[in-house]
Amino acid sequence: MTAVTQAPPAPGPLKLGLRQGGLEVRQFSRSREAVVFTMAFPVIMIVIFASIFGGEIGGGVKFTQYFITGMIATGLLSVGFQSLAIQIPAERDRGVLKRLRGTPMPGWVYFAGKVIMVLIVGIAETAILLAVSTLFFDLDLPATGARWLTFLWVSLLGISACTLCGIAFSSVARTARSAPAVVTPVALILQFISGVFFVFTDLPTPMQQIAAIFPLKWMCQGLRSVFLPDSFAVTEAAHSWELGKVALVLGAWCVIGLVLCITTFKWTTKRDG
Question: Buried b vs exposed e over 43-78: b needs ≥16 C-beta within 10 Å?
Answer without folding.
Answer: bebbeebbeeeeeebeeebbbbbbbbbbbbbbbbbb
